[in-house]
Specification:
Elements lengths: L3 H26 L12 H24 L1 H26 L8 H22 L7 H10 L13 H22 L4 H17 L14 H4 L5 E5 L2 E8 L7 E5 L2 E11 L1 E5 L2 E10 L2 E5 L2 E7 L5 E5 L2 E6 L8 E5 L2 E8 L7 E5 L4 E6 L2 E6 L5
Parallel strand pairs: 2-4, 3-5, 4-6, 5-7, 6-8, 7-9, 8-10, 9-11, 10-12
Antiparallel strand pairs: 1-2, 12-13, 14-15
Length: 368
C-alpha cells in the first residue's frame, strides 16, 4: 500500500499536468487571427464602381446588339480589368519610370487588350456597324492615360472627342429605328466625361485685354456677279465639330483644335483648319479646297468632283479615303528648306480582273 506522502506527491503531479495541458490548450485556441486584408485605395474603389456600373451596363447593352459590337465590348471589359491590375500594383508601390522595363512589363497586358479592341474595327471597316466600332476604338486609347506624364486630363478629353464624333453618327442614324444602338453608344463616354473632372473647380482664367478679344466681322462682298463670303471661327473647343452645309463661294477659317469638320453639298468652298482630333469629311461637294495647317489624322471624300487638299508636314501620316469622286488632288510638302507643294492626284481609274473566283483590283497608270 502506498505511503500517504507519495499519494500527495502523485496528486500534485496530476494537478500540474492537468494545469499545463489546459494552458497549452488555451494558448492554441487563443492564437491571434490572421491580419485583415489591406483596404483598397479610394481611387481603386472608384474604378471598381465604374466597372460594376457603367462598363457592365455597356457590355450588357452591346450584347443585346450582338455581332461585332458584342465581341468588341468583351475586349473592352478586358482592357478595364488589365488597367485595374495596373492601378492596384502602382498604388501600393512607387510607380516606376515610364522608360524602365518594369513599367513596360506592367502595361504590356493593357496594351495587348487595347490593340485587340482597335483590330476589331480595323478588320471590319466596311461593316454596317463601322461607326459603332469606331466610337469605341477611338475612345478606348484614353485608358493609356497612365503612360502620360503630368496631367493626363487633356489627353483623355481628346480621346473622348474622337469617340463622340462617331457616337454622334450612331445616334443620328439609329435614334428613330434602333434605340438600343443609341443607348450602347452613350454609356461609356457619358461616364468618362464626368469621372475625370477635378474635385475642385479650376481657377478662373484671366480675361484678355479688349483689343485682343475684338472679333473681325465676316467678309461679305460682291465681285461682279458673285458673292464672296469669309468667316473665321476662333471660339472653338476640342469637343466641338463644325458642320458646313450648302455654302457657295465661301472661305471658312477655323483656329485652334477641334474634333471634326464636315463639308456637305458645298460649291467652291474653302476651309482652313489648324488641328483636328478626328477627321475632315467632304460629301457631295464640288470644287472645294482644304488647307490643313497642323495635324489631321483622317480625310474622307465621298461623291465629290474637283477638290484640292493641302497637307502640312505634321499630317503626312494621315489616312485618305475616297469613294465615287473625281479630280481630287492632294498637295504634299516637298523636302528641303525651300520646299514647295507636290501635287499628287488620287487615282480614279481601276482595273479589276477575276482570278481563282475572286476579284483583284489595281490602279491603272498612264505612261507618257
Amino acid at each position: 500500500m502506498a505511503h500517504p506522502a507519495q499519494m500527495n506527491n502523485l496528486t500534485t503531479l496530476i494537478k500540474r499536468n492537468t494545469s499545463a495541458s489546459s494552458l497549452v490548450s488555451t494558448t492554441t485556441i487563443q492564437n491571434p487571427p490572421p491580419p485583415a486584408p489591406e483596404p483598397l485605395p479610394a481611387s481603386v474603389e472608384d474604378f471598381d464602381e465604374l466597372i460594376a456600373k457603367e462598363v457592365a451596363k455597356y457590355v450588357e447593352k452591346s450584347a443585346e446588339i450582338g455581332d461585332l459590337v458584342g465581341e468588341q465590348s468583351k475586349a473592352v471589359e478586358k482592357c478595364f480589368a488589365a488597367q485595374r491590375k495596373f492601378l492596384v500594383i502602382t498604388t501600393k508601390a512607387k510607380k516606376p519610370g515610364s522608360s524602365t522595363q518594369l513599367f513596360v512589363d506592367l502595361v504590356a497586358e493593357m496594351q495587348t487588350e487595347l490593340t485587340n479592341v482597335s483590330n476589331i474595327r480595323e478588320n471590319n471597316r466596311h461593316s454596317a456597324l463601322s461607326n459603332h466600332l469606331s466610337t469605341v476604338s477611338e475612345g478606348i486609347p484614353g485608358l493609356a492615360w497612365v503612360t502620360v506624364e503630368g496631367k493626363p486630363a487633356k489627353y483623355v478629353r481628346e480621346m473622348l472627342g474622337a469617340a463622340q464624333f462617331f457616337g454622334n453618327r450612331v445616334i443620328t442614324s439609329h435614334k428613330e429605328t434602333f434605340p438600343k444602338h443609341v443607348e450602347a453608344s452613350s454609356i461609356v463616354p457619358a461616364r468618362s466625361s464626368t469621372s475625370l473632372r477635378a474635385k475642385s473647380p479650376a481657377p478662373p482664367s484671366k480675361s484678355k485685354p479688349a483689343h485682343l478679344t475684338r472679333k473681325k466681322p465676316p467678309k461679305k462682298e460682291l465681285d461682279g456677279n458673285k458673292w464672296y463670303i469669309s468667316l473665321t471661327l476662333e471660339d472653338v473647343e476640342i469637343n466641338h465639330s463644325v458642320f458646313i452645309y450648302r455654302c457657295k463661294n465661301t472661305t471658312i477659317q477655323i483656329k485652334g483644335k477641334i474634333n471634326a469638320v464636315s463639308l456637305n453639298e458645298c460649291v467652291k468652298t474653302n476651309a482652313i483648319v489648324d488641328n483636328l482630333v478626328s477627321s475632315i469629311e467632304v460629301i457631295k461637294s464640288n470644287n472645294f479646297a482644304i488647307q490643313i495647317m497642323g495635324k489631321a489624322p483622317n480625310l474622307q471624300v465621298d461623291q465629290c468632283d474637283g477638290g484640292t487638299v493641302y497637307v502640312s508636314k505634321d499630317s503626312l501620316d494621315m489616312e485618305i479615303f475616297t469613294s465615287k469622286s473625281s479630280a481630287i488632288n492632294i498637295n504634299v510638302p516637298g523636302a528641303g528648306e525651300d520646299w514647295d507643294y507636290q501635287e499628287c492626284p488620287v487615282p480614279e481609274q481601276l482595273k479589276t480582273t477575276i482570278k481563282g473566283g475572286k476579284l483583284e483590283t489595281e490602279i491603272v497608270e498612264h505612261a507618257g
